């Protein structure tokens, strides 16, 4: 029966199944023709391609932007390297200066050539109790700095793991 | 228009990009720009934002190629980046993602801007504009689902992966979107005017 109503969902499910084949009305006469025709026309519109309005040189402009981004990334990496070097030197100096290696001094004393290094322990200007709390704090700060740096660096240039 | 991907071809292309072959990435852009544009077109109404967004999406694709592990289809992976980038853009612009835009004033004139197709028949064009104006009033995710299902011919599962929605929800949104479109159009325009019987 041509006018027997079935639900919207059934019409759509039927049309979905028939999308690539011929006229759906030929095989299912129970579909309300008006509704089905409306859906069929709607499907035709929905299936029709959207006009691509990207310019012809779109790919080239993307490549140009990537090249600029990469350039600034390399510059940034150089700054990063400089900061890391300064931080490392400063950190090591501070560690020696504040007797940071005090706990391994017995090991140093086993080798005469390390005596000069061990002399750093006498250079402290802070009270003894503070000497050993600075080391973990300093290491924590350095670790956090490196972790944050690694996170942003990886996010920015995951692609570079390829190279 | 479904993008057919052969794994070996894709691997070869990605390998070339890894080796620093810029032309290979240009090839990749040419191949997937239609998919990206279709998604952006339906999600974003502002024409001037669309090209910039497409560019941002491809830059993200380039930067994250290393993270693509061949577990999913490459087109699904790119579509996911496109959807997420566009959603972030819409959030920044404070465009509601799940709201109905029925009360919006997207006019046929607005839609005309996007459909200046010289080779299309005048009547068809008018119908297309009416339908398109109604599509633009649907919630953003519904529009995206319509595009991925009808133009990209993706399955419910693939769409679910892209939008991070269960398959059932995708199906339900799709059916509701088409029902809403049909009802709105039939209520607004006489059916003969909209879809002549000889069409």
Outline:
Chain A is an all-alpha fold. Chain A has 6 helices and no strands.
What do you see in this structure?
- The complex is a heterodimer of chains A (163) and B (199).
- In chain A, 64% of the residues lie in helices and 0% in strands.
- With 163 residues, chain A is mainly alpha-helical.
- The model of chain A is unreliable at 156-163 (pLDDT under 50).
- Chain B is mainly α and 199 residues long.
- Chain B has one domain (7-194): Rna Polymerase Sigma Factor, Chain: A, CATH 1.10.1740.
- Chain B contains ten helices and no strands.
- Chains A and B meet through α1, α2 and α3 of A and α2, α3, α6, α7 and α9 of B.
SSE sequence of chain B, one letter per element: HHHHHHHHHH
The total domain count of chain A is 2
Number of beta-strand segments of chain B: 0
Helix content of chain A: 55-70%
Q: State the helicity of chain B in percent bands.
A: 55-70%
Overall average pLDDT of chain B: 82
Distance between the termini of chain A: 67 Å
CATH topology of chain B: Rna Polymerase Sigma Factor, Chain: A
Give the topology:
The complex is a heterodimer of chains A (163) and B (199).
Chain A: H1 8-18, H2 33-47, H3 58-97, H4 105-110, H5 115-118, H6 128-156
Helix pairs in contact in A: 1-2, 3-6
Chain B: H1 7-18, H2 22-43, H3 47-64, H4 74-92, H5 108-112, H6 122-135, H7 140-151, H8 156-163, H9 167-188, H10 191-194
Helix pairs in contact in B: 1-2, 2-3, 2-4, 2-7, 3-4, 4-8, 6-9, 7-9, 8-9
């Amino acid at each position: 029966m041509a006018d027997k109503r079935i639900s919207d969902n059934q019409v759509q499910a039927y049309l979905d199944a028939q999308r690539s084949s011929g006229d759906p009305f030929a095989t299912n006469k129970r579909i309300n023709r008006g509704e089905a025709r409306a859906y069929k026309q709607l499907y035709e519109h929905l299936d029709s391609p959207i006009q691509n309005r990207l310019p012809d040189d779109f790919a080239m402009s993307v490549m140009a932007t990537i090249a600029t981004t990469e350039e600034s990334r390399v510059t940034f990496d150089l700054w990063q390297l400089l900061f890391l070097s300064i931080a490392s030197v400063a950190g090591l100096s501070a560690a020696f200066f504040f007797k940071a290696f005090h706990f391994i001094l017995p090991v140093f004393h086993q080798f005469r050539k390390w005596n000069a290094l061990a002399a750093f322990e006498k250079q402290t200007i802070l009270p003894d109790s503070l000497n050993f709390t600075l080391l973990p704090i300093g290491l924590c700060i350095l670790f956090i700095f490196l972790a944050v740096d690694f996170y942003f660096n990886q996010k920015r240039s995951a692609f570079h793991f390829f190279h | 228009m479904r993008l057919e991907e052969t794994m070996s071809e894709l691997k070869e292309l990605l390998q070339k990009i890894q080796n620093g072959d810029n032309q290979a990435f240009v090839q990749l852009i040419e191949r997937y720009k239609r998919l990206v544009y279709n998604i952006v077109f339906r999600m974003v109404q502002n024409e001037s934002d669309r090209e910039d967004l497409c560019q941002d999406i491809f830059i993200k694709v380039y930067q994250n190629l290393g993270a693509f592990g061949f577990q999913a289809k490459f087109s699904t992976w790119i579509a996911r980046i496109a959807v997420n980038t566009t959603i972030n853009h819409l959030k920044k612009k404070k465009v509601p993602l799940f709201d109905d835009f029925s009360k919006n004033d997207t006019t046929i004139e607005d839609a005309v801007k996007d459909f200046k197709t010289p080779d299309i028949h005048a009547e068809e064009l008018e119908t297309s504009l009416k339908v398109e104006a109604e599509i633009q009033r649907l919630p953003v995710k519904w529009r995206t689902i319509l595009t991925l299902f009808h133009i990209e011919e993706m399955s419910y599962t693939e769409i679910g992966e892209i939008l991070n929605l269960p398959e059932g929800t995708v199906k339900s949104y799709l059916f509701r979107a088409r029902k809403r479109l049909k009802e709105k159009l039939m209520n607004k325009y006489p059916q003969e005017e909209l879809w002549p019987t000889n069409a």
